[in-house]
Amino acid sequence: MENEEDSRATTYTTLSAGQDFRHELEIRRSRFITVLRRSPDEETARSLVSELRREFHDARHHCSAFVIGPDRMVQRSSDDGEPSGTAGIPMLEALIKREAAPGVTDLSDVSAVVVRYFGGILLGAGGLVRAYSESVSAALDGAPLVQRRRLRLCAVDVPHAEAGRLENELRNAGYVMAETGYEAAHAVLRIALPDEAAGIADAHSRVASLTAGTAVLTPQGTEWVDVPH
User: pTM, whole model, 2 decimals?
Assistant: First the structure.
């Protein structure tokens, strides 16, 4: 039976870290200003709403949606005064249905806020749904995305004289090598592996084969790493 750790997501798509991404649309004289932020937790997502309320204090609406977690378990949205279901839910759907690749909808750790300045022309319920959905989709079209991967770090102790050869052999086999440590008695090679049982088992076999069974991989935990999208 598949264990709980194996069933968790090992990759997902998110925004590049470090800065917000902004996009503006004008629809029938209303301004829709969309701000996207990478948000690993609800506090970060909600802080974006608070910041934009202060920055655009004279705007009528600050609608929001966010999805958080590798498995996208946290999903929230707010219409902020727009008719129920015409803003937050369309924004959330634009996030969760976004295709990072054909058939792949895995966008997460992203919050979106759409600030609306009313232009004097009523859009109607259908018009609002389209406007808020289009605002988030258009912003995502230009936003920098990355793939985030959960990698399993494993270490192997080898004699100093063998470290260079073994590291080269593993690199040539396609493995991602993390930083090598040098201790008094031996070198410590570190390999970053996809956090999947089959790949880890293959790495154990490869190290055993390359060292005639004298070296063994030791797990050192996992970490999430950004990979260019």
Answer: 0.78
Alpha helices, DSSP H only, in 60-176?
Answer: 88-96, 124-142, 160-172
Q: Which two tokens stand for residue 122?
A: 């009523």
Backbone angles phi, psi at 71, to 5 degrees: -100, 5
β-bridge partners, 78: 64
Q: How many residues does the chain have?
A: 229
Residues with Cβ < 8 Å from 155, sequence gap 6 or more? Answer: 188, 189, 190, 191, 217, 218, 220
Alpha carbon distance 35, 121 (integer Å): 23
Six-digit token pair at 64?
A: 């929001």
At 63, list the tokens.
């609608």
Instruction: Convert the pLDDT of each residue in 94-136 to its tens digit.
Output: 999 999 888 999 999 999 999 999 988 889 999 999 999 999 9
Nearest CA to 82 out of 102, 48, 59, 58 is that of: 59
The pLDDT tens digits of the residues spanning 174-225 come to 888 888 889 988 999 999 888 888 888 999 999 999 999 898 999 988 888 8
Residue type, 63: C
Going from the N-terminus, what domains does the chain have, and what CATH number goes with each?
10-143 (3.30.230.30), 149-228 (3.30.70.240)
- Give the bridge partners for 12, in sequence order: 148
31 in Cβ contact with 24 (< 8 Å): yes
